[in-house]
Design a protein that fits this description.
alpha/beta, Rossmann fold, 2 domains, 6-stranded parallel beta sheet, 15 helices, 41% helix, globular
């Protein structure tokens, strides 16, 4: 079995955990650093220990996939908070030049939230509690001024709303992180990196993150290096693990996209800076896959439930749960593809931070939910699309009983987490906390909250047509706030965890096509 060493952005289940699961779905053995070397929320990882681990494990694996944020800053959250200077962090990249197996690296253009955040879940410096919105406004007007869309007076007015110390701290840290990405471009140009992906975390069309992404794109073009840039972050390790699996098997998965809403892919989803169509195309390329027009030629058909014309966000701007979401056309498309014997995935990006419950219930009622090879509806559009495609192509990469069991388990998890926890359970917990003047449940109440979540998820799952017989246990909030959940899943005791699930060619799918893999990551 091919072994891959992974440095994920952090220890979360949806970064480290998803990527390890996708590896199992694709027939890979993915190994990660020992817990003692990893970060814990805002506490940085031991970067020296991570470098030692990389040197040692690189002699025992076939490929290395590395988060630059973990290797250099000690994690994704620490990259936004630590005070290390440029001269301290850049030497931490040097270990990648010592590794003799192929290296795939990924980094993110640091996000810049445009809201005040004093919650326990705060992922930015402490001053974001009182000045986050004003920093976001300054970031936007700075970029707009550079593009000739705002006056110097507007910049001065926005700058005057933020203390000098906060501005200096913000700009210094962003300059440091930008320098790391420039150094990664140099390593890609030197041939040190087999693949480099630079994604944009929680971005927007205007602001410092968008400006930095445009600057990086210019250097990419001038250097002539093969680097992929697109919106996303947490899903990237899963995508790149699937990419490595395709590379080692010499397979280029073929993906067809079906969006029943004619205008849907031209919309810009919340927390992104370009139309969904472009982000999706780059996610396909990041997988080492190709997009095809004919669904009958595809290894996977992804049906997209596109962003709503009026954006909704289950955390910040909850949509009207009773309004028509247009889910029927998506379910009809899924039914047609399943009836034609195609492998089908659903990327539900109707709303940010959770699935469309109407679509999920409709797919379950029609007996289609368990026939999917993958499903996603979490956080940003890029997060959803990346993990959904990564899991969806794995039947073309591995058809062993182990990999099929892993796919069943991952599909069940995503249905429960994205379809019920995020839009329903988490929202309920947040509303209860708000009524008490809180942002999250108190720490001393977390054991009871975990028990409540476990009961709710289990009761809901067993009440669905698709997951009857599955058992949910030990739900927990890894970072002690509601945004991220983890739980254990036990499949039914009878053979075949998801009775309706498509299980490779054994149920009549056309043979999987095999073509030469396209080298490089694209642009």
């Amino acid at each position: 079995m091919t072994r891959v060493a992974l440095l994920p952005p952090d220890e979360r289940p949806n970064t480290r955990g998803y990527a390890v699961a996708i590896g199992a779905c694709a027939g890979l053995d993915v190994v990660t650093p020992p817990p003692a070397a990893m970060p814990s929320f805002r506490r940085p990882a031991d970067t020296a220990a991570l470098a030692r681990w990389l040197r040692e494990i690189s002699t025992e694996v076939d490929h290395v996939v590395v988060s630059l944020e973990l290797l250099v800053h000690g994690g994704l959250i620490p990259s936004r908070n630590t005070d290390d200077r440029i001269g301290q962090v850049l030497p931490r990249l040097d270990v990648l030049r010592e590794i003799d197996v192929p290296v795939t690296a990924f980094g993110v253009v640091t996000r810049l939230p445009s809201y005040d955040n004093a919650a326990r879940s705060r992922q930015e410096p402490a001053y974001w509690a009182t000045h986050g919105a004003r920093l976001g406004a300054l970031s936007t007007v700075w970029d707009a001024h550079d593009l000739g869309e705002a006056t110097a007076e507007a910049v001065a007015a926005a700058r005057g709303q933020v203390p000098d110390a906060y501005v200096t701290d913000l700009v210094r840290r962003r300059a440091r992180n930008h320098a790391v990405l420039l150094a990664a471009l140099e390593m890609a140009s030197d041939g040190v990196l087999d693949t480099l992906v630079i994604s944009s975390d929680d971005t927007a069309p205007r602001g410092l993150p968008a400006a930095e992404r445009r600057q990086l794109q210019r250097w990419i073009e001038r250097l002539g290096v093969d680097v992929l840039t697109y919106p996303g972050a947490d899903e990237v390790p899963s995508v790149l693990v699937a990419r490595v699996a395709a590379q080692v098997r010499g397979i280029t998965p073929k993906i067809a996209v079906d969006c029943p809403d004619a205008d849907g892919l031209d919309r810009i989803a919340p927390y992104e800076d370009r139309p969904v169509r472009l982000g999706l195309a780059n996610q396909v390329r990041a997988l080492g896959a190709v997009e095809v027009a004919d669904a009958d030629e595809a290894d996977l058909v992804v049906v997209v439930h596109p962003p709503a014309p009026e954006p909704g966000d289950w955390v910040l701007d909850p949509p009207d749960a009773s309004a028509d979401t247009g889910w029927t056309a998506v379910a009809d498309a899924v039914a047609a593809h399943v009836a034609a014997g195609r492998r089908v995935a659903v990327a539900d990006i109707r709303f940010a931070n959770g699935s469309d419950p109407q679509l999920l219930a409709g797919l379950d009622d029609r007996g289609l939910l368990g026939r999917l090879v993958s499903y996603g509806g979490w956080n940003t559009a890029g997060n959803t699309i990346g993990t959904t495609l990564a899991a969806g192509v794995t039947p073309a990469l591995s058809v062993t009983p182990r990999s099929q069991d892993a796919r069943d388990r991952f599909l069940a998890r995503k249905i429960i987490e994205d379809g019920h926890y995020l839009p329903v359970v988490r929202r309920r917990l947040q509303q209860e906390a708000t009524r008490r003047g809180l942002t999250d449940p108190p720490l001393d109440e977390l054991p009871d909250v975990h028990a409540r979540i476990t009961r709710d998820l289990h009761r809901w799952a067993t009440g669905t047509r698709t997951l009857s017989g599955w058992t949910v246990t030990n739900a927990r909030l890894p970072w002690s706030y509601t945004f991220t959940v983890d739980f254990d899943l036990t499949p039914p005791s009878h053979a075949g965890a998801l009775p309706q699930a498509v299980a490779g060619d054994a149920v009549g799918l056309a043979p999987v096509g095999r073509v030469a893999v396209v080298p490089g990551a694209g642009q």
